């Protein structure tokens, strides 16, 4: 049993855990467990932002044309989703399609 079983040894801000091959559609999730579930369910390209407050900091690659945001449905997840939408205004104005996806609808 570890006292702190999830720990980064440096700053994670703006970084993520990327799964799959680069693709025009990117799924953005909070934790790596959700990202792995999305991959197992057929998503070709997924990034975990590691923790909710890091979601608005993820840099979306230019080749991504559609972003599917998959926030947790708790208070922090919803607040982060709204901040993430705000942080993507430039991308959206330049043609990025953004959708949301509720993980609980599929479980």
Concise overview:
The chain has 3 helices and 5 strands. It is an alpha/beta fold.
Task: Give an overview of the whole structure.
This protein is an alpha/beta fold. Helix content is 25%, strand content 21%. It is built from 3 helices and 5 strands; from the N terminus they run ββαββααβ. It has helices at 32-40, 75-87, 89-93; strands spanning 17-20, 25-29, 45-48, 66-70, 97-100. The longest helix is centred in the last third of the chain and has 13 residues, at 75-87. It is globular. The mean pLDDT is 89.
Give the strand content: 15-25%
Biggest beta sheet attributes: 5 strands, mixed
Determine the number of helices (DSSP H or I, runs of at least 4 residues): 3
What's the total count of β strands? 5
Which overall shape is indicated by the principal axes computed on the Cα atoms? globular
- Spans of 5+ residues with little confidence (pLDDT < 50)? none
Q: How much helicity do the residues have? A: 25-40%
Major beta sheet, strand line-up: 1-3-2-4-5
From the N-terminal CA to the C-terminal CA, the straight-line distance is 28 Å
CA gyration radius, whole angstroms: 14 Å
- Overall mean pLDDT stands at 89
Order of helices and strands: EEHEEHHE
> Which structural class do you get from the secondary structure elements?
alpha/beta
Descriptive terms for the model:
five-stranded mixed beta sheet; 107 residues; alpha/beta; 21% strand; 25% helix
């Amino acid at each position: 049993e570890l006292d702190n079983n999830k720990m980064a040894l440096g700053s994670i801000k703006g970084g993520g855990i990327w799964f799959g091959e680069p693709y025009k559609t990117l799924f953005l999730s909070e934790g790596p467990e959700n990202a792995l579930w999305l991959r197992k369910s057929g998503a070709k390209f997924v990034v975990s932002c590691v923790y909710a407050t890091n979601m608005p900091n993820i840099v979306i690659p230019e080749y991504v044309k559609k972003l599917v945001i998959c926030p947790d449905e708790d208070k922090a997840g919803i607040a982060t989703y709204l901040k993430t939408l705000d942080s993507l205004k430039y991308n959206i104005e330049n043609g990025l399609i953004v959708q949301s996806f509720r993980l609980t609808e599929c479980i």
